Amino acid sequence: MSVETFVPSTQLISLTDSAVKHFESKLKEKPGQLIRLSTRVSGCTGYAYVLDFADSAKDDDEIIEISPRLNVAIAADATGLLKNTEIDYVQEGVNGVIKYNNPNVVDECGCGESFNVG
User: Fold this and answer.
1) What confidence tens digit (pLDDT) does each residue in 51-73 have?
2) How many C-beta neighbours within 10 Å does residue 102 have?
3) What is the pLDDT of residues 9-58, one digit of tens each?
4) φ, ψ dihedrals at 56, nearest 5°
5) In contact, 61 and 79? CB cutoff 8 Å
6) Angle 110-114-118 from CA coordinates, rounded to 5°
7) The three-state (H, E, C) secondary structure of the chain, written as one string
8) What's the order of all strands across the beta sheet hosting 70-74?
9) CB of 51 within 8 A of CB of 98?
10) Which of 35, 78, 99, 112 could form a disulfide with 39 if both were Cys (CB 3.0 to 4.6 A apart)?
11) For the chain, first and last CA: distance in Å?
């Protein structure tokens, strides 16, 4: 009989290859900039994702080096809401869309504007 050990992920967020390529291309002409991810109270369900380009992180942000050309700063007050979230970039018809695969979400509004965690 063998015993398997569950080792929880310690990484706050991850990005798919498609998302990495998307953000690296956006930052190509902006050396030194990074992506900053935060949340805000919004909508009928609770929170909304806020994704910005920034010249620098805020003092209490958690910085994650995704690649040599891409760093993501996570707002300190959003870490609990975003733990283990995967960020993806997908083509839907002619549009590119950022998708958040957040395992903490227990409810989303119908329009996709906001989410709530359990």
Assistant:
1) 999 999 999 999 999 999 999 99
2) 19
3) 457 899 999 999 999 999 998 888 999 999 998 877 788 999 999 999 99
4) -155, 165
5) no
6) 100
7) CCCCCCCCCCCCEEECHHHHHHHHHHHCCCCCCEEEEEEEEECCCEEEEEEEEECCCCCCCEEEEEECCEEEEECHHHHHHHCCEEEEEEEECCEEEEEEECCCEEEECCCCCCEEEC
8) 62-67, 70-74, 34-42, 46-54, 115-117, 105-108
9) yes
10) 78
11) 35
Token pair recorded at residue 2? 């063998």
Task: Give which of 109, 83, 14 is closest to 23, Cα–Cα.
Answer: 14
- Hey, what are 106's tokens? 């227990």
8 Å CB contact between 75 and 37? yes
Going from the C-alpha of 96 to that of each of 20, 76, 90, 111, the distances in angstroms are 13, 28, 6, 18
